[in-house]
Amino acid sequence: MPGTLLPPEVVAELTDAAGQILKQVLRQEDRALSLGNGSRPEDYNVEHSIDATVVGLLIGRKLVSQDALEELSTGLFLQDIGKLGLPPRLVHKEGPLAADEWELMMQHPLLGLEFLRDDSIPAGAKSVVRAHHERWDGSGYPSGLVGDEISLFARIAAVADVFDAVTSERYHAPAVPKRQGVELIRTGAGSVFDPVVVDAFVDAVRG
Questions:
Q1: Which residues, in sequence order, are CB contacts of 40 under 8 Å at separation 6+?
Q2: Which of the pair, 192 or 27, is modelled with greater confidence?
Q3: Most exposed of 14, 16, 161, 199 (fewest Cβ within 10 Å)?
Q4: CB-based contacts of 5, cutoff 8 Å, min separation 6
Q5: Quick one: pLDDT band at residue 41, thresholds 50, 70, 90?
Q6: What is the domain-level CATH number for residue 29?
Q7: Does pLDDT of 20 surpass 70?
Q8: What angle do CA 127, 184, 155 make, to 5 degrees?
Q9: Which residues contact 84 (CB under 8 A, 6 or more apart)?
Q10: What is the pLDDT of residue 143?
Q11: Which pLDDT score, from 0 to 100, does residue 1 have?
Q12: Which residues on neighbouring strands pair with residue 189, listed in sequence order?
């Protein structure tokens, strides 16, 4: 599958789903939305795409114009699309990944771009797919980008991705309470995460 474009009808379905999530977020106040899915580990890969999109949009509507939220929503929802190019045994492994497996897993952002090479997905959304695992201090992957080298959309996605991950049940780690997840993000401000994005996140989930 790597290098293969997704069929247009699949892309249309995925972008429509992202749009539906955006509509739901815009209808509600921040604190009315449930954060941290607490689902079974086997449900994580599907529900993470939805829940991380919600968290990212809560942050995004404090930092970008409403006109930009649709593009952000699409990127958030598609951020892990590259995992379709990985062996299912790796994506669904019930336990920690070995070093060589992590090397393969870290290819999923670039694999995701290969699926989305046509012009139906806007550049801002693709930047989320490409860089949601980059880190403010350059410690992320796949390219070790630093600070503003990472798009704002991807910096928002980085916070949303980690918060939803740690507050969700996964095979290799139990869910932590929402409060603990917020504190983990807060302590990463200025090192792992863009401090401006962290401030917007804390403001969005406060209370």
A1: 169
A2: 192
A3: 16
A4: 114, 115, 116, 117, 118
A5: low
A6: 1.10.3210.10
A7: yes
A8: 15
A9: 1, 111, 115
A10: 96
A11: 46
A12: 193
Looking at the chain, how many residues does it have? 207
CA-CA distance, 14 to 156, in Å (whole number)?
Answer: 20
Tokens 């990127």, residue located: 75
| Helix extents (H) in 167-194 | 178-187
3-class state of residue 61 by DSSP: helix
Domain that holds residue 156: 8-205
Q: Is 3 contained in some domain?
A: no
* Residue 131: both structure tokens together: 């860089």
Number of other residues whose CB lies within 10 A of the CB of residue 105 = 17
3-class SS at 136? coil
Residue 54 backbone phi and psi in degrees, to 5:
-60, -50
> Hey, what are 128's tokens?
């989320």
Rounded to whole angstroms, the Cα distance separating 205 from 207 reads 6
What is the tens place of the pLDDT at every residue in 44-78?
667 888 999 999 999 999 999 999 999 999 999 99
pTM of structure: 0.91
Q: Which amino acid is located at 85 in the chain?
A: G
CA–CA separation, 34 and 51 (whole Å): 9
CA distances from 181 to 8, 56, 114, 165 (A): 37, 15, 32, 9
| Residues whose CB is less than 8 angstroms from the CB of residue 34 and which lie 6 or more positions away in sequence, other chains included | none
In a domain, 93, yes or no: yes
Backbone phi, psi, residue 197, to 5°? -65, -40
